[in-house]
Specification:
With 155 residues, this protein is of the alpha/beta class. Helices cover 35% and strands 15% of the residues.
Length: 155
């Protein structure tokens, strides 16, 4: 209700909200809810409860885990979606691709790896390369040229 009503009310087990809202409301309503799955590279993967929550409730998930964990997680999320009566294909999933310090062929290969793994979205990241703002913009412009040249969708 927060993203769709001017003055939402909510009464739940732990919280009660009344008499406030967001103005103006977002153009796209409701706002999709995406969840990060995993604690990042080199850390333990997500608990079963998180995967169940993603399958039951979320519109998508960010695969913030080492790539060997993705297939199993994706399968579990799809199973939880089916158990909840949801279409698992309606739940998006995003893989992150680090670009800084990698050649176009390297990061493009990672992008194709994520697509083969079933990712509906990809995030091309320019962070962690020690690049200033201008270098990050130049890298993103180059990535746009490469992605379009490959015939891949940017939507």
């Amino acid at each position: 209700a927060l993203w769709t009503d001017l003055t939402p009310t909510f009464s739940g087990r732990f919280d009660q909200v009344d008499g406030f809202g967001i103005d103006p409301l977002p153009v796209n309503r409701p706002i999709p809810i995406w969840v990060g799955a995993g604690g990042g590279l080199g850390k333990p993967g997500p608990r079963e409860a998180l995967l169940r929550r993603i399958g039951r409730l979320s519109d998508g998930w960010f695969a913030v885990v080492p790539s060997p964990q993705v297939a199993g997680m994706h399968a579990q999320i799809r199973e939880h979606a089916l158990d909840a009566g949801r279409d698992p294909d309606a739940i998006g999933f995003e893989g992150g691709i680090g670009m800084a310090g990698n050649t176009n062929e390297e990061w493009l290969g990672r992008l194709h790896d994520w697509r083969r793994a079933g990712a509906s979205h990809g995030c091309l990241r320019t962070l962690d390369g020690g690049l200033d703002a201008n270098a990050q913009l130049a890298l993103m412009q180059e990535s746009h040229r490469v992605v379009v040249g490959e015939g891949l969708s940017l939507a």
